[in-house]
Amino acid sequence: MPQVRVILQKAALPIVGALALAGLYWIGRVNYLLYHSLTELISVAVAFGIFMVAWNTRHLVHLGYVLVLGVAYFFVAAFHMLHMLAYAGMGVFAGMTGSNLAAQLWVAARFVESPSLLLALLISRRQIKARWLMAAYACVFCLLLVSIFVWRAFPVCFDETTGLTSFKKASEIVIMGILGAALLVLVKQHRQFDRWVLGCLSASILLGIASEGAFTAYRANVYGPFNELGHFLKLLSFFLIYKALIETGLRRPYAILFRDLKQSQEDLQKVTNELEDRVRRRTAELMKVNDDLGTEVTERRKAEQAVKAERQRLHDVLEMLPVYVVLLTPDYHVPFANRFFEERFGESHGRRCFEYLFGRNKPCETCETYKVLKTNAPLHWEWTGPDGRNYDIFDFPFTDTDGSPLIMEMGIDITERKRGEEALRQERGRLVSVLNMLPGYVSLVGRDHRVRFANHGFLDAFGEPADKPCYLIQMGRDSPCQGCPIEDVFRTRRSTTWEWTSPAGRIYRAWGHPFSDTDGSSVALILGLDVTEQKKLERQVIETGEAERRSIGRDLHDSLGQRLTGLALLAEGIAGAVEDSLPDRARLAQQMVALAKESIAEVRAMSKGLNPLGLGQGGLVASLAELAETVQAQSGIRCESHCDEGLAIEDTVLAMNLYRIAQEAVTNAAKHSRARHIWIRLAESPSSILLEVRDDGTGMPQRTDNGGLGMRTMSYRTSVMNGTFGVRPAPDKGTVLSCSVPKPGRTTREIAR
Asked: What are phi and psi of 327, to 5 degrees?
């Protein structure tokens, strides 16, 4: 019977625990809100109990992790209580419905708990001031509450339509990672903990990781099975924390409160054992010394022989070097010279260096070598020997075997290198001369936009670079230009071409190429030509062409149109005169009238095409509207023109170019895009005018434009106006052709700003 009683006592707690968990599961099936409240209240009770044990034993505990966990779980308990009250369906916080508030409080609690577990283990053996620790956690707690309830700055964790947000999922993953790190640190520090405490803490952290994993699995239902499983696992995790810190602290306080004392005793015993072992080993070593002394003489002789062999090997290496190596004494004698030196300058035969090298009877006054003895520091210089060859000299302070000072000198024959450098210098000078003769500017620009090299053309146009960035020198800007093409050269490692306008109004066409500087760094080689006069000539050519078109259109309208009108009137008169007497002739005259009227209509259309813009304000706007009507009438495709209200372009050349671009784009869309709808849009901004032609056709891959001639013509007209031209797919389907040009009187610099 006593044995049965003991068995029943041991099995009572697991049975009661299993029944309690089963009861919680049944409650979760019947009333999930009640289940959630019970699990949270139990977690709050456990967390507060941890705090009570840790805080009231803080004067006895010398392990920092107990105090950190106690203080941390006090605020975790507060967050869990707020989380329970804010849960969907509780209705405690008025005006804050939904599940987002509860999810935010849950994430805040996890971000307090998981780093605290890791921090407690990292500072487990340190003493911490409890008041400062409590103040720090209180500040974090208040900041989190203010960010959630007052500032509303805490990220959204739950969306009522889509469920968990990306921040919530990422937070759970980060928390799992922190808990995993805490588990690794706990395993590494396992000797500091009682086995029971270690097992409970490890299992609690693992259940915490599993709980966070469950909370990443549910989507939009906060009452779902994964949410229920997460709370269930979190309850088990808190229960194990209770077993490790509260129950153990009350029933077996030595296991947690005096673990450090026990560990110190174990460490002391270990040190004692190690000391005894070290004494034994030291005694054995001393006994071995006598044996080693017997072999020391033999080993020393072997070492001397090895040194002698090493010296011979070093001598052989010095003899084989393709450089000369000599040792010089303070009185200018040469105690050692390798074969290279003797082959170049002969043997010294006891003479001093200045005697057999230069045939002098005293040292050179400018001798660099013996400066080493004064400075006791290495010296590097160049020397032209008596054989006429150039040498790179390295002098080092040295000490002879007897301790006397020496100079070790090494000379490298650099004659061929000097010749190559001279040839390279001449070649570089020739290249620079060629670059200076080019009819444009050439520069090397680094990744920091600083000009590393500039030819005369650059200096004449923009002045001395003085290590300044190109945007300051050429554009007078304090920062790089938006969409800088030089950055495209560095990013794509490909050549590119662009045009830009200086603050002085000069237009340059530039070519940028990836290049490598002499130090191996990446630079951009920029070649630029002043095309201002060319642009003016191109504009004049276009203006002349358009003027000629307008002249021809006026002639057709004023001269040929009037003549055809007169011919039609004359034919009508003839038809009326002979209608009774000669009916056949009258019919021929009526046919002449019809042909004359058709010819008049064609002449008017041709005249309008050659001179589409009317005089006065709003000529381009009206012409675009008429173009849309004409295309719709001829092709049957719906065509609309939309222009900003009050937009007027007084520059007739600019207006004509924009009209021609729109005319070409609309014609291409009507012929090739299979579109049902075409939109023409003309808008203005403070700095530019934008023309867009969009269709809902088949898109760019199926588009043709007669071999690209029309596209090149539109691009050319845009470049003459210093604008930008582009073709891109429409967002839904079709194609968008855009042309942006500066307003008359504005420069590229003003537009960039």
From this structure: -110, 130
Residues 239 and 180 in one domain: yes
pLDDT for the residue numbered 139: 93
Number of Cα atoms under 13 Å in the Cβ half of residue 223: 14
Kindly state whether residues 397 and 493 are assigned to the same domain.
no
Sheet holding 336-337, edge to edge: 336-337, 324-328, 405-413, 390-399, 379-384
Q: Are residues 219 and 273 in the same domain?
A: no
Q: Looking at residue 705, which CATH number applies to its domain?
A: 3.30.565.10
Residues 168 and 42 in one domain: yes
- pLDDT for position 223: 62
Q: Are strands 688-695 and 163-164 parallel, antiparallel or unpaired?
A: unpaired
Same domain, 294 and 384: no
Three-state SS at 642: strand
Taking alpha carbons only, the member of 697, 686, 683 closest to residue 727 is 697
**Long-range Cβ pairs for the range 97-102 (8 Å, 24+):** 98/158, 98/160, 99/158, 99/160, 99/222, 100/156, 100/157, 100/158, 100/159, 100/160, 101/148, 102/158, 102/222
As a whole number of angstroms, the distance between CA 110 and CA 80 comes to: 10
Cα(24)–Cα(11) distance, integer angstroms:
20
Reported as type and span, the H/E element at residue 424 is: helix 415-437
Give the pLDDT of residue 726.
85
302 and 229 share a domain? Answer: no
* Consecutive H or E run containing 447: none
In the chain the first and final C-alpha atoms are separated, in Å, by: 97
Task: Give the model confidence (pLDDT) of 283-302 as tens digits.
Answer: 777 777 777 776 777 777 78
The number of helix segments (H) and strand segments (E) in the chain equals 24, 17
| Domain endpoint, select from 239, 257, 275 | 257
d(CA 643, CA 666): 16
Whether residue 309 is found in the same domain as residue 360: no
Tens digit of each residue's pLDDT (9 = 90 or more) over 471-502: 888 877 888 877 788 888 888 888 888 777 77
Q: Mind listing the pLDDT tens digit for each residue in 3-12?
A: 555 555 555 5
Residue 400 is part of which domain span? 321-413
Query: Two tokens at 342?
Result: 């003797």
Give yes or no for residue 662 having a pLDDT over 90.
no
| Closest to 22 in 3D by CA, of 8, 35, 9, 40 | 35
- 3-class SS shares of the chain: helix, strand, coil, % to 5: 60, 15, 25
CATH of the domain at 392: 3.30.450.20
- pTM here is 0.36
* E-state strands within 378-537: 379-384, 390-399, 405-413, 441-446, 451-454, 496-501, 507-516, 522-530
Question: Could you identify the residue written with the tokens 């950055």?
Answer: 487
Q: Which residue has the tokens 């007669």?
A: 706
Please give the tally of structural domains in the chain.
Answer: 7
Neighbours of 702 (CB within 10 A): 11
Helices (H), 438-560: 456-462, 470-475, 485-492, 532-555
Q: Give the pair of three-digit tokens for residue 567.
A: 């011919």
In this structure, the chain runs to a length of 753
Do 516 and 537 share a domain, yes or no?
no
Please count the other Cβ atoms lying within 10 Å of the Cβ belonging to residue 497: 10
**Residue 733: per-residue pLDDT:** 82
Cα separation, 146 vs 299, in Å, equals 78
Q: Name the domain boundary from 285, 317, 349.
A: 317
